[in-house]
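Contributing new records

If you add data, match the layout below exactly. Sequence lines come first and carry their own label; structure lines follow with theirs. Keep one chain per record. Anything else will be rejected by the validation script.
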Amino acid sequence: MRIALACLFAAAAVTLAACGKEEAPAPSSAATAGSAAAQKPAAVDIDAIASKAQGFSVGPAMSARVVYVFFDAQCPHCAALWEFAKPLKTQARFVWLPISLLNGNSTTQGAAILASPDPAAAMEGHEASMREKQGGIVAQGNIEPQLATVKSNTELFNKYGFNSVPALVTKNAQSGAVVTHEGAMPTAELASWLGVQTTQQ
């Protein structure tokens, strides 16, 4: 599988910025069975994501608005979305789902974040380390269960035909229809997409 960074920038403001697949991936050895079905992405099922994907939440546990975010620990645009989402943390619950898309560190660092006693704090520290070019979080102890979680999340990401991270999934506030977006959005644009008000941190 050839995977590379495909980073998209808008001229004046970042309206879509993502790290993604250079080309459609070939089926992995773990996913060769039923590969014909895998050619056509499944319709995004937010209930299946809620029940099958595993990550960590930021925001009110009982929020009416829930946003599922597939992210890669090595993706700078996922790091940007992490910052952009902070002012909205009282308006929506963001569920961050680590996947492995970009390189080998994606898996181990995503698992290390999940294995932390406080994944949100671990994510914050990881992103700070990445910004300072210090390499990010280092796995400690046994992270085998979390490695399996990252793999399972990645399989869901691929099942729904996403091509880049961050990939966001939520329900439209008015219609209740499932809506998706690939790429980071500045806070104001993210708030508009979610139908919420921007608040100060």
